[in-house]
Protein backbone atom coordinates (compact mmCIF):
# COMPACT_ATOMS: atom_id res chain seq x y z
CA UNK A 1 0.00 0.00 0.00
CA UNK A 2 1.55 3.33 -1.01
CA UNK A 3 2.18 5.60 1.97
CA UNK A 4 2.57 9.36 2.19
CA UNK A 5 6.19 9.49 0.92
CA UNK A 6 5.26 7.41 -2.14
CA UNK A 7 2.33 9.71 -2.98
CA UNK A 8 4.43 12.81 -2.35
CA UNK A 9 7.11 11.41 -4.67
CA UNK A 10 4.70 10.93 -7.57
CA UNK A 11 3.18 14.35 -6.85
CA UNK A 12 6.58 16.03 -7.13
CA UNK A 13 7.28 14.26 -10.43
CA UNK A 14 3.86 14.91 -11.98
CA UNK A 15 4.08 18.55 -10.91
CA UNK A 16 7.02 18.87 -13.32
CA UNK A 17 5.16 17.57 -16.39
CA UNK A 18 1.39 18.06 -16.05
CA UNK A 19 0.89 21.82 -15.53
CA UNK A 20 0.09 23.55 -18.79
CA UNK A 21 -1.19 20.37 -20.43
CA UNK A 22 -4.86 20.01 -21.35
CA UNK A 23 -7.10 17.02 -20.53
CA UNK A 24 -8.47 16.13 -23.93
CA UNK A 25 -10.58 13.14 -22.98
CA UNK A 26 -11.20 10.82 -20.05
CA UNK A 27 -11.90 7.17 -20.80
CA UNK A 28 -13.50 5.15 -18.00
CA UNK A 29 -12.75 1.47 -18.41
CA UNK A 30 -14.17 0.42 -15.04
CA UNK A 31 -17.18 2.27 -13.64
CA UNK A 32 -16.40 1.24 -10.06
CA UNK A 33 -13.10 3.15 -10.26
CA UNK A 34 -14.66 6.48 -11.18
CA UNK A 35 -16.88 9.01 -9.42
CA UNK A 36 -18.14 12.40 -10.49
CA UNK A 37 -18.48 13.94 -13.95
CA UNK A 38 -15.68 13.50 -16.43
CA UNK A 39 -17.10 16.31 -18.61
CA UNK A 40 -16.07 18.79 -15.91
CA UNK A 41 -12.41 17.98 -16.58
CA UNK A 42 -12.40 17.47 -20.34
CA UNK A 43 -10.96 20.44 -22.19
CA UNK A 44 -9.46 21.91 -19.02
CA UNK A 45 -5.85 22.82 -18.43
CA UNK A 46 -3.84 21.44 -15.51
CA UNK A 47 -2.82 24.20 -13.10
CA UNK A 48 -0.92 22.14 -10.52
CA UNK A 49 -0.63 18.87 -8.64
CA UNK A 50 -1.43 18.84 -4.93
CA UNK A 51 -1.90 16.31 -2.19
CA UNK A 52 -4.21 15.97 0.80
CA UNK A 53 -2.86 13.20 3.01
CA UNK A 54 -2.69 10.18 0.68
CA UNK A 55 -5.04 11.64 -1.94
CA UNK A 56 -3.42 13.13 -5.02
CA UNK A 57 -5.21 16.16 -6.45
CA UNK A 58 -4.77 17.34 -10.01
CA UNK A 59 -5.87 20.95 -9.95
CA UNK A 60 -7.60 22.10 -13.15
CA UNK A 61 -8.64 25.49 -14.44
CA UNK A 62 -12.09 26.62 -13.29
CA UNK A 63 -11.82 25.25 -9.74
CA UNK A 64 -12.16 21.64 -10.86
CA UNK A 65 -10.07 18.89 -9.24
CA UNK A 66 -9.26 15.33 -10.15
CA UNK A 67 -8.79 13.38 -6.90
CA UNK A 68 -6.98 10.04 -6.97
CA UNK A 69 -6.94 7.63 -4.04
CA UNK A 70 -4.50 4.75 -4.50
CA UNK A 71 -5.71 2.56 -1.61
CA UNK A 72 -4.08 -0.91 -1.74
CA UNK A 73 -2.96 -1.31 -5.33
CA UNK A 74 -3.62 1.92 -7.24
CA UNK A 75 -0.91 3.30 -9.47
CA UNK A 76 -0.39 6.15 -11.93
CA UNK A 77 1.73 5.99 -15.03
CA UNK A 78 2.37 9.05 -17.17
CA UNK A 79 3.55 8.25 -20.64
CA UNK A 80 4.91 11.18 -22.62
CA UNK A 81 3.80 11.61 -26.21
CA UNK A 82 5.58 9.18 -28.53
CA UNK A 83 8.17 10.84 -30.74
CA UNK A 84 7.85 9.93 -34.42
CA UNK A 85 11.28 8.37 -34.59
CA UNK A 86 10.60 6.03 -31.69
CA UNK A 87 7.09 5.08 -32.73
CA UNK A 88 7.95 1.45 -33.39
CA UNK A 89 10.10 0.91 -30.35
CA UNK A 90 9.07 -1.77 -27.89
CA UNK A 91 7.24 -0.08 -25.02
CA UNK A 92 9.68 0.55 -22.23
CA UNK A 93 10.10 2.57 -19.08
CA UNK A 94 11.65 5.36 -21.13
CA UNK A 95 10.43 8.74 -20.09
CA UNK A 96 7.62 7.36 -17.95
CA UNK A 97 6.65 8.72 -14.58
CA UNK A 98 5.28 6.04 -12.31
CA UNK A 99 3.88 6.03 -8.79
CA UNK A 100 1.82 4.04 -6.36
CA UNK A 101 1.74 0.28 -6.04
CA UNK A 102 4.64 -1.17 -8.07
CA UNK A 103 3.76 -3.83 -10.64
CA UNK A 104 4.85 -4.90 -14.10
CA UNK A 105 2.50 -2.25 -15.49
CA UNK A 106 5.17 0.33 -14.54
CA UNK A 107 7.20 -0.94 -17.48
CA UNK A 108 4.74 -2.97 -19.58
CA UNK A 109 2.47 -1.99 -22.42
CA UNK A 110 -0.49 0.23 -21.51
CA UNK A 111 -3.41 0.14 -21.26
CA UNK A 112 -3.25 -3.23 -19.50
CA UNK A 113 -5.99 -5.39 -18.01
CA UNK A 114 -5.55 -3.36 -14.79
CA UNK A 115 -6.09 0.02 -16.44
CA UNK A 116 -9.27 1.60 -15.03
CA UNK A 117 -9.17 5.22 -16.19
CA UNK A 118 -7.22 6.82 -19.04
CA UNK A 119 -6.58 10.56 -19.22
CA UNK A 120 -5.74 11.56 -22.78
CA UNK A 121 -3.81 14.81 -22.65
CA UNK A 122 -2.93 17.14 -25.50
CA UNK A 123 0.56 15.74 -25.03
CA UNK A 124 0.97 12.37 -23.37
CA UNK A 125 -1.33 10.00 -21.50
CA UNK A 126 -1.95 9.36 -17.81
CA UNK A 127 -3.10 5.87 -16.81
CA UNK A 128 -4.77 4.94 -13.53
CA UNK A 129 -4.24 1.23 -12.96
CA UNK A 130 -5.58 -0.73 -10.00
CA UNK A 131 -5.48 -4.51 -9.58
CA UNK A 132 -7.77 -4.87 -6.59
CA UNK A 133 -10.22 -2.06 -7.38
CA UNK A 134 -10.25 -0.34 -3.98
CA UNK A 135 -8.77 2.86 -5.38
CA UNK A 136 -10.71 5.52 -7.21
CA UNK A 137 -10.63 8.62 -9.37
CA UNK A 138 -13.05 11.46 -8.77
CA UNK A 139 -13.74 14.55 -10.84
CA UNK A 140 -15.63 17.31 -9.11
CA UNK A 141 -15.44 20.93 -8.01
CA UNK A 142 -12.52 21.78 -5.78
CA UNK A 143 -15.02 22.72 -3.07
CA UNK A 144 -16.86 19.38 -3.16
CA UNK A 145 -13.63 17.38 -3.07
CA UNK A 146 -12.08 19.32 -0.21
CA UNK A 147 -15.27 18.82 1.77
CA UNK A 148 -15.42 15.06 1.32
CA UNK A 149 -16.23 13.61 4.70
CA UNK A 150 -13.22 11.33 4.93
CA UNK A 151 -10.86 14.21 4.11
CA UNK A 152 -12.57 16.38 6.72
CA UNK A 153 -12.07 13.63 9.30
CA UNK A 154 -8.32 13.41 8.75
CA UNK A 155 -5.99 14.61 11.44
CA UNK A 156 -3.17 17.04 10.57
CA UNK A 157 -0.01 15.82 8.87
CA UNK A 158 3.09 15.66 11.07
CA UNK A 159 4.66 18.33 8.84
CA UNK A 160 1.89 20.77 9.77
CA UNK A 161 2.08 20.58 13.56
CA UNK A 162 4.58 21.34 16.32
CA UNK A 163 6.08 18.85 18.76
CA UNK A 164 3.75 20.12 21.49
CA UNK A 165 0.68 19.63 19.30
CA UNK A 166 1.91 16.12 18.43
CA UNK A 167 2.21 15.27 22.12
CA UNK A 168 -1.25 16.63 22.85
CA UNK A 169 -2.80 14.62 20.02
CA UNK A 170 -1.22 11.23 20.75
CA UNK A 171 -1.09 11.33 24.57
CA UNK A 172 -4.89 11.53 24.78
CA UNK A 173 -5.18 7.89 23.84
CA UNK A 174 -4.76 4.78 25.95
CA UNK A 175 -4.28 2.57 22.91
CA UNK A 176 -0.86 1.17 21.86
CA UNK A 177 1.25 4.01 20.48
CA UNK A 178 1.72 2.36 17.09
CA UNK A 179 -2.03 2.17 16.50
CA UNK A 180 -2.40 5.82 17.46
CA UNK A 181 0.40 6.87 15.09
CA UNK A 182 -1.37 5.03 12.27
CA UNK A 183 -4.85 6.34 13.13
CA UNK A 184 -5.46 8.77 10.27
CA UNK A 185 -8.08 10.68 12.27
CA UNK A 186 -5.41 11.56 14.87
CA UNK A 187 -2.47 12.24 12.55
CA UNK A 188 -2.61 11.61 8.83
CA UNK A 189 0.11 10.22 6.64
CA UNK A 190 1.89 7.70 8.87
CA UNK A 191 1.43 4.18 7.51
CA UNK A 192 2.82 0.86 8.66
CA UNK A 193 6.37 1.07 7.30
CA UNK A 194 7.10 4.51 8.70
CA UNK A 195 5.34 3.86 12.03
CA UNK A 196 7.57 0.84 12.63
CA UNK A 197 10.74 2.70 11.76
CA UNK A 198 9.86 5.87 13.68
CA UNK A 199 9.21 3.86 16.86
CA UNK A 200 12.59 2.17 16.52
CA UNK A 201 14.30 5.55 16.01
CA UNK A 202 12.63 6.89 19.16
CA UNK A 203 13.32 3.63 21.09
CA UNK A 204 9.65 3.21 21.95
CA UNK A 205 7.97 -0.19 22.14
CA UNK A 206 5.04 -0.31 19.64
CA UNK A 207 2.80 -1.79 22.37
CA UNK A 208 3.38 1.04 24.84
CA UNK A 209 0.13 2.80 25.62
CA UNK A 210 0.14 6.23 24.00
CA UNK A 211 -0.56 8.07 27.26
CA UNK A 212 2.36 6.45 29.10
CA UNK A 213 5.40 7.73 27.20
CA UNK A 214 7.88 9.37 29.52
CA UNK A 215 10.09 12.45 29.58
CA UNK A 216 11.06 13.59 26.15
CA UNK A 217 9.84 10.43 24.39
CA UNK A 218 6.99 12.33 22.74
CA UNK A 219 9.45 14.87 21.41
CA UNK A 220 11.81 12.11 20.23
CA UNK A 221 8.97 10.27 18.54
CA UNK A 222 7.77 13.41 16.81
CA UNK A 223 11.28 14.05 15.46
CA UNK A 224 11.56 10.42 14.36
CA UNK A 225 8.24 10.50 12.51
CA UNK A 226 9.31 13.62 10.61
CA UNK A 227 12.74 12.09 9.99
CA UNK A 228 11.58 8.81 8.47
CA UNK A 229 8.88 10.49 6.35
CA UNK A 230 11.40 13.01 4.99
CA UNK A 231 13.87 10.24 4.32
CA UNK A 232 11.12 8.28 2.55
CA UNK A 233 10.44 11.26 0.29
CA UNK A 234 14.16 11.79 -0.32
CA UNK A 235 14.56 8.17 -1.47
CA UNK A 236 11.43 8.33 -3.62
CA UNK A 237 9.39 6.16 -1.27
CA UNK A 238 9.65 2.44 -0.71
CA UNK A 239 9.17 -0.08 -3.47
CA UNK A 240 7.76 -3.35 -2.18
CA UNK A 241 10.03 -6.36 -2.05
CA UNK A 242 7.94 -8.22 -4.61
CA UNK A 243 8.83 -5.68 -7.25
CA UNK A 244 12.59 -5.47 -7.03
CA UNK A 245 12.90 -5.81 -10.80
CA UNK A 246 11.39 -2.33 -11.06
CA UNK A 247 14.71 -0.96 -9.89
CA UNK A 248 16.39 -2.50 -12.92
CA UNK A 249 14.57 0.14 -14.93
CA UNK A 250 15.53 2.90 -12.55
CA UNK A 251 11.93 3.12 -11.36
CA UNK A 252 10.53 2.89 -7.89
CA UNK A 253 11.88 4.24 -4.64
CA UNK A 254 14.85 3.21 -2.52
CA UNK A 255 13.67 3.68 1.06
CA UNK A 256 13.44 -0.12 1.40
CA UNK A 257 17.25 -0.15 1.43
CA UNK A 258 17.05 1.96 4.59
CA UNK A 259 14.41 0.10 6.61
CA UNK A 260 15.27 0.07 10.35
CA UNK A 261 12.94 -2.70 11.47
CA UNK A 262 10.31 -3.08 8.77
CA UNK A 263 10.60 -6.39 6.89
CA UNK A 264 13.71 -7.33 8.96
CA UNK A 265 12.30 -10.11 11.17
CA UNK A 266 15.08 -12.28 12.63
CA UNK A 267 17.82 -9.86 11.60
CA UNK A 268 20.07 -8.00 14.00
CA UNK A 269 19.11 -4.56 15.26
CA UNK A 270 21.08 -1.82 13.52
CA UNK A 271 22.29 -0.52 16.89
CA UNK A 272 25.36 -1.98 18.49
CA UNK A 273 24.36 -4.21 21.42
CA UNK A 274 20.83 -4.34 20.01
CA UNK A 275 18.70 -7.47 19.87
CA UNK A 276 17.07 -9.47 17.11
CA UNK A 277 14.14 -7.88 15.34
CA UNK A 278 10.86 -9.52 16.34
CA UNK A 279 7.65 -9.51 14.39
CA UNK A 280 4.12 -9.73 15.74
CA UNK A 281 0.68 -8.58 14.68
CA UNK A 282 -0.82 -5.43 16.16
CA UNK A 283 -4.20 -4.26 14.93
CA UNK A 284 -3.81 -6.74 12.09
CA UNK A 285 -0.59 -5.20 10.75
CA UNK A 286 2.90 -6.64 10.77
CA UNK A 287 4.79 -4.98 13.62
CA UNK A 288 8.57 -5.14 13.89
CA UNK A 289 10.64 -4.08 16.87
CA UNK A 290 13.85 -4.60 18.79
CA UNK A 291 13.05 -5.92 22.29
CA UNK A 292 16.40 -4.64 23.59
CA UNK A 293 16.29 -0.97 22.64
CA UNK A 294 12.55 -0.33 22.33
CA UNK A 295 10.99 0.02 25.76
ZN1 LIG B 1 17.88 -2.60 19.12
Automatic annotation (TrEMBL):
Residues 2-135 form the Formamidopyrimidine-DNA glycosylase catalytic domain. Residues 260-295 form the FPG-type domain. One of its GO terms (molecular function) is 8-oxo-7,8-dihydroguanine DNA N-glycosylase activity. InterPro entries: FPG_cat, FPG_Glyclase, FPG_N, H2TH_FPG, Ribosomal_uS13-like_H2TH, Znf_DNA_glyclase/AP_lyase, Znf_FPG/IleRS. One of its GO terms (biological process) is base-excision repair. Pfam families: Fapy_DNA_glyco (PF01149), H2TH (PF06831), zf-FPG_IleRS (PF06827). It catalyses: 2'-deoxyribonucleotide-(2'-deoxyribose 5'-phosphate)-2'-deoxyribonucleotide-DNA = a 3'-end 2'-deoxyribonucleotide-(2,3-dehydro-2,3-deoxyribose 5'-phosphate)-DNA + a 5'-end 5'-phospho-2'-deoxyribonucleoside-DNA + H(+); Hydrolysis of DNA containing ring-opened 7-methylguanine residues, releasing 2,6-diamino-4-hydroxy-5-(N-methyl)formamidopyrimidine. Keywords: DNA damage, DNA repair, DNA-binding, Glycosidase, Hydrolase, Lyase, Metal-binding, Multifunctional enzyme, Zinc, Zinc-finger. The keyword Cytoplasm does not apply. Its cofactor is Zn(2+). Belongs to the FPG family. Monomer. This is Uncharacterized protein.
